[in-house]
Amino acid sequence: MKAVITLACLASALAFAPSSSRRQSIQMKAEMPSFNKVVTTALAGIFTIGSFNLPAQAISKDDLLSLSYLQVKGTGLANRCSEVKGTDSININGKMKITGLCIEPTSWQVEEESVSKKGEASTNFVNTKLMTRQTYTLDDISGSLEVKDGKATFTEEDGIDYAATTVQLPGGERVPFLFSVKDLVAKSSSSGPIKPGFDLSGSTTVPSYRTGLFLDPKGRGTTTGYDFAGALPGLQNGNEGVGEEKLFEENNKKFDVLKGDIEFAVTNVNAAEKEIGGVFVSSQPSDTDMGGKKPKTILSKGIFFAKLE
């Protein structure tokens, strides 16, 4: 109601205003379409930048480098890998270097055991829901690429090569794991050149999800804390086999270092920019709760980007 009264007062004031004021109001009305056009263009730009965090919206390396920190902040672009366009080929001449290797998972599956109505046990991979915020992509990984024993070999040397990630099973169970390509030595089935269809595969090191200073809810740890929980007097009465064997894995905390595998397949190559891109599949174990439980197998799939020097 107040808005209607204000507009009515404004209209009557303009009706009895001097001719100069009327000319100014007419000029403002004439400038309104251009002002609306500017606002529309600005909003379109904002929505365009915001849409980059959608998986279906691709972004090139040049587009990413052209944005400022504030334009990237909060959009999810820092968790995205760039797209490569082209189907060229690059020869592997001598010892080359791969820089800016970006590995972005887009789906996660966990191997689960199930029992049929007939009582037959089987294992299959179940789709999961991501619980981690957009900090799971590995980026800025570098290493050497050369031909060894007739096969192209990539050796990982530096970069953000691991990321703590958690997924949730349909039943609600959450599975944490350390997505890792540490100590990766990937070999190709050929010596090159790098073109669509070129592959690289190898094993990786998967460190423990928890560090040595971590304490579980009962205060047990590897380097600090209790050797066993204080609420378990059965471990203190000297009788062997009274709860000790069942709780040995929970009490005997350890830093597990396991192994995983990853395979890359090149789908696009830009020879002018020395850029390659494609898809990958990674298979690795999940967290063991510092030796307290058996790890699950995590199957990660996604895309990757790299630059050759």
Task: Spell out the blueprint of helices and strands.
Elements: H1 2-15, H2 19-50, H3 61-65, H4 69-72, E1 96-115, E2 121-127, E3 129-130, E4 138-148, E5 151-160, E6 162-168, E7 174-180, E8 182-187, E9 199-206, H5 248-251, E10 258-270, E11 275-285, E12 297-308
Antiparallel strand pairs: 1-2, 1-4, 1-12, 3-6, 4-5, 5-8, 6-7, 8-9, 9-10, 10-11, 11-12
Descriptive key words:
309 residues, alpha+beta, Porin, eight-stranded antiparallel β-barrel, three-stranded antiparallel β-sheet, 5 helices, globular, disordered N terminus
CATH class of the largest domain: Mainly Beta
Radius of gyration: 29 Å
Based on CA inertia axes, which overall geometry fits? globular
Query: Looking at the chains present, what oligomeric state does this protein adopt?
Result: single chain
Number of separate helices: 5
Order of the strands making up the biggest sheet: 1-4-5-8-9-10-11-12
Describe this entry's structure for a reader.
This protein has 309 residues and is α+β, with helices and mostly antiparallel strands. The chain has two domains: 2-53; 86-210 and 255-308, Photosystem II, cytochrome c-550 precursor (Porin, Beta Barrel), CATH 2.40.160. 19% of the residues lie in helices and 37% in strands. The chain has helices at residues 2-15, 19-50, 61-65, 69-72, 248-251; strands at 96-115, 121-127, 129-130, 138-148, 151-160, 162-168, 174-180, 182-187, 199-206, 258-270, 275-285, 297-308. Strands 1-4-5-8-9-10-11-12 form an eight-stranded antiparallel beta barrel. β4 (138-148) and β5 form a beta hairpin. It is globular.
